[in-house]
Amino acid sequence: MKTKQFLLIVLACLCIPFTQLWSNPVNGLLERIDPGASKKFIIQVKKGPSDFFELDQKGDKVVIRGNNYVNIATGLNWYLKYYAGIHLSWNGMTAKLPESLPKVSTPVRKETNLSLRYDFNYCTYSYTMAFWDWKRWEKEIDWMALHGINLPLAVVGQECVWKNMLEKLGYTKEEINKFIAGPAFLAWWAMNNLEGWGGPNPDSWYTQREALQKKILKRMREYGIEPVFPGYSGMVPHDANKKLGLNVTEPALWNGFTRPAFLLPTDSRFNEIASLYYKELEKLFGKANYYSMDPFHELEDAGSVDFDAAGKAVLKAMKDVNPKATWVIQGWTENPRPEMIKNLNNGDILILDLFSECRPMWGIPSIWKREKGYEQHDWLFCMIENFGGNVGLHGRMDQLLNNFYLTKNNPLAAHLKGIGLTMEGSENNPVMFELMCELPWRPEKFTKEEWLKDYLFARYGVRDEKITQAWSILADGIYNCPFGNNQQGPHESIFCGRPGLNNFQASSWSKMQNYYDPTSTEAAARLMLEVADKYKGNNNFEYDLVDIVRQSLSDRGRIVYNQTIADFKSFDKKSFAAHSQEFLNILLAQDRLLGTRSEFRVGRWIEQARNLGTTPEEKDLYEWNARVQITTWGNRVCANDGGLRDYAHKEWNGLLKDFYYKRWAAYWQTLQDVLDGKPMVELDYYAMEEPWTLAHNPYASQPEGDCVSVAKEVFNKVFPNK
After folding, report:
1. What pLDDT sits at residue 8?
2. N or C: which end of the chain has fewer CB atoms below 10 A?
3. Cα-Cα-Cα-Cα dihedral sign, residues 655, 660, 665, 670
4. How crowded is residue 266: how many other Cβ atoms within 10 Å of its Cβ?
5. Sequence-ordered list of residues with C-beta below 8 angstroms from that of 512, at least 6 positions apart, any chain
6. 210 to each of 129, 134, 165, 219, 513, how far by Cα in Å?
7. What is the homologous superfamily of the domain 476-718 according to CATH?
8. Helices (H), 54-128
């Protein structure tokens, strides 16, 4: 009898997937954080009417419960931060947990009715993730789970779908290569902005991307994360009228680039093309419950489009694939056109209010205010935070908190379903993303001052008055961009813009305005440096120290720039020579400082790109993509006339010394020559920039030097008199 029972038990076990019997995705996450850590926790899935997590104690083990694995991972993150003083972020996703975990003396329960937490902008996939491999993606999916993300945009490999689709439509390999963009520019191809730039992609690229997306989706689904697939809303190659006989719009140029054509959703052949697209998408990656589509995105001249009919046609094509699917659309400038969504039912679409922390569209005061909000439609409160993947401290702490809690009991926000991270670039300003991700779990409004005290403990594992003072300065200044200031992310560095007599912003579309005292970052950096020796080896502290000192140098550089220009205009040759050299010295000091952290090295970005290549030629192509995107962005016409140059500028080691320094040194010399009586020379910046994009000189990706001692040294050189 006992033998029989034993055999039955064994048989039953064999019918259960191994992963379910012995582990779960949260245990796997714990093992990646710290091998052996899963033995210190008890993970329990428990049904509930709303999203929740609970922290509890059983003996010497911490118990984490939740209604799904993402919420359990969120609870784990809450425990690590606020009990263990361990903050997992982009600059560090591993930690050494204490042998004996801090006990949960009183059970904790957090719940939310904001059940959807979205992640990513199309641009994020190019500005930050263009060259990520599975190892890096695995960390990101863990980060998402820890931060409650359950609805990420999932567009890796979309070019594989298009390649297969275009082959079915009769396009040759050469024609497809002229249409699909290269690795660093796929986001803008997907958004109907350009064709072919950065390509042609080798066959191995498509093989890699398909395999990578399948791994990504597998892990997301293990957690219970719902991927948002790119849907079809009408994009076709610009020559589709000739090649396929399609009745398409004549595409205008986008900043000098040829745009794809647009097949109106109301066209008789729209459903045919859409069906083929979804068929190929399903073959590769399966079906989804959410599809992202942004027809007429940033299309100022939409002509006499029947938006109502177009919206219904896009929706129908998607519903034909999955009747339960939801259309995800960005709330950005004119989109979604009210006429396009007015006759769609609640649940048909989910709107991302893309810039809720600054320019909300859902009905509260804003330059984009919609008087009726999104009416019957579900929507998410989103934060962009970063444009272009630029480096720089930045945030809207008070505005974010005010705008978010204004949604409470507001009739225009009746269909709010969650939050979204819609940054153009990530791996920056962890404090803002941490704050945003906690909002669904904090029902009552709080102040940034209250929150920061515990955040700093979580971030560094200590409570230190000097650190608190430093962050109070930052929170009241550079992290508190006020209402009415609509600038696009971080305060742009003076070092990164093409030189001129009236430099302010670096990128041509910048809406940057002064809103904080530039000497305040110096004060914060000084306080951090005063305790730096005490926290040497603390990874999060060292990352923030370098970032804050970097910001202080950048702000000092802007002050010195203005002094140098004033010297030139007043014909003060002696002061001009001194200040122009001081400016260059600060730039080089910053380059040296940033070399102490891999996150701030251009070599890391280039190495990621080259590592994906399977041949020397592929490695060179991917490196060119990487170099062009962060500098000229496009060719001469697109960079200069289109204004794309320096949009994705980076304060990175190597780039500062070999790219930005050369521009500034040449410019200061032309002004010096004028002061010496020579005629003014107009520099051809593109001719100076392009050689760097074509080069293959090596850059190290690993840090060099002790960041604490280097930070002290460069800071004292730049600020010698205090």
Report:
1. 45
2. N
3. positive
4. 17
5. 487, 488, 491, 492, 504, 505
6. 15, 12, 14, 15, 43
7. N-acetyl-b-d-glucoasminidase (1.20.120.670)
8. 69-82, 124-127
- Find the radius of gyration of the CA atoms of the chain: 26
The residue written with tokens 């004028």 in the block is: 674
List the chain domain ranges: 2-112, 117-441, 476-718
Q: Which CATH architecture has domain 117-441?
A: Alpha-Beta Barrel (3.20)
Distance CA 109, CA 116 (A): 19
Quote the CA–CA distance of 571 and 563 in Å, as a whole number.
12
Overall size of the chain counted in residues: 722
Q: 462: which 2 tokens?
A: 């200590």
Tokens of 1: 């009898």
135-167 b/e (C-beta count within 10 Å ≥ 16 → b) = eebbbbbbbbbbbbbbbbbbbbbbbbbbbbbbe
CA distances from 420 to 139, 341, 382 (A): 19, 21, 4
Please list, in sequence order, all residues whose beta carbon lies within 8 angstroms of the beta carbon of residue 497, skipping any fewer than 6 positions away.
503, 504, 505, 506, 507, 646, 649
State the pTM of this model.
Answer: 0.95
Structure tokens at 379: 């929507």
Assigned architecture for domain 2-112: 2-Layer Sandwich (3.30)
- Residue 58 is given by DSSP the state E
Q: Which neighbouring-strand residues pair with 248?
A: 263
Furthest-apart CA pair in the chain: how many Å? 107
pLDDT in tens, 53-98: 999 999 999 999 999 999 999 999 999 999 999 999 999 999 999 9
Residue reference for tokens 């024609």: 175
> Whose CA is closest to 159, among 198, 202, 190, 195?
190
CA gap 500, 513 in Å, rounded: 18
8 A C-beta contact, residue 630 and residue 603: no
Q: In this structure, what token pair is assigned to residue 106? A: 């009183």
| Tokens, residue 397 | 């702490």
- The residue written with tokens 């990706």 in the block is 701
